[in-house]
Structure formats: C-alpha cells, structure tokens
Amino acid sequence: MFTSSSRALDSALLRFVPPESVSSVDAQAYGRGLAAGTYRREWSWLALLDGAVVARGVWWGPVGSVHPVELRCLAVDATVPHPEVWGAALIRCAHREFAEAGAILAPDLVVEVDSTRRTEPDVVAALAWRQEAARQAGLPVVTETVVESAASPLARVTFSARPLVAPAAAAQPALR
Predict the structure, then answer these.
(1) 19: how many CB neighbours lie within 10 A of its CB?
(2) Dihedral (C-alpha) 29, 142, 55, 125: value to the nearest 10 degrees?
(3) Residue 84: how many CB atoms within 10 A of its CB?
(4) What sign does the dihedral 101-105-106-110 (CA atoms) show?
(5) Helix or strand or coil: residue 3?
(6) pTM, whole model, 2 decimals?
(7) Other CB atoms closer than 10 Å to residue 95's CB: what's the count?
(8) CATH number of 158's domain
(9) What CA–CA distance (Å, rounded) separates 2 from 44?
(10) What is the extent of the structural domain holding 65?
C-alpha cells in the first residue's frame, strides 16, 4: 500500500532511515521542515508491506508553496528486491495525488552526495537505482552540478521531467 503520511504514521516515517551514502531527511530536519512548512505530511509518502515501511519519499516545497517542487529523500529498505520498482511506484502514486490537487509540474527528484565519494561503488549503486526509479516514474532528464560548501563539495544530481534550460530552437523567436 502507498499512502501519504499522517500523525499516526509519524514515528514509522521518522524511524525509517536506511543507512545510505546519499542525502536523506533525518528526524530533526523533518521536524524543522514541518514547523517551517517546507515539509508536510501530505507531501511525505510511505510504501507499506504487511504493515511495515519498505520505502519512503519526502517532498519539499518553499514556505507558502501550494505544491512540492522537489523530492528530497527517496529511500527503500535494502532487504527489498528491486528498489527501483518500489521507488518508481512511490513517486508515481505521490505525483498522481499532487496532480489531482492541482500541481501542474511533476516535482524533481534531487539527490546530494559528497562529490569526493561520487565514484565509490555504494554511491554509484545508490544513484543508479534512483535514476532508474526516476526514469520509470517519468523523470528521465538528469543534470548534475557541484555545489561548493564549507565542509566538502556536494554533487547535486537532479532527475526531472523537463530540461532545466529551454532548447536553443525553442528559446529563439521565430523569424518571418
């Protein structure tokens, strides 16, 4: 079953943080986001199998936003086969609900990793299944940027339904 979160599911949502080498939303960040309005229960989704959480997605939006703009955390239990299938199904269910609530654009999936670890096998594997999940969910466009930070540079990998920059032909006005 795929469902958006609720107060009754808060503890399950917060306890489910599989150890991974990519960005995640921990309990403290989620609590702060709830208080600020950048994370919301209706934007936080769980996949349940026999009552146990096997996947979660936490979407983010700017304060005051009506709809989320980014999926900031996509996690699947490591013991579940085919995480890309679970991730894609979770994204599709949530995006369908967002569209029914009036969202015009599908939110992007954003994954941040320590760029000094970008080629390590666990990081490559974590990004690979997320890329496949994103593709299956209709987010085939991949862009990667490096964000310089005080601690270490982050690689920000974005999976989107649309290019971040308009194609050259579309950006040029037609001449007659």
Answers:
(1) 8
(2) -100
(3) 18
(4) negative
(5) strand
(6) 0.89
(7) 23
(8) 3.40.630.30
(9) 11
(10) 2-164
Measured CA distances, 175 to 12, 62, 103, 169, 170 (Å) = 58, 38, 34, 12, 12
On whether residue 93 sits in a domain, the answer given is: yes
What CA–CA distance (Å, rounded) separates 163 from 19?
31
Q: What is the pLDDT of residues 51-89, one digit of tens each?
A: 999 999 999 999 999 999 999 999 999 999 999 999 999
What is the count of structural domains for the chain? Answer: 1
Q: What are phi and psi of 16, to 5 degrees?
A: -85, 90
Helix axes 83-100, 121-136, angle to 10 degrees: 40
Listed range (29-33, 43-47, 115-119, 121-125) with the worst mean pLDDT: 115-119
Query: CA triplet 121, 125, 128: central angle to 5 degrees?
Result: 135
Give 113's strand partners. 155
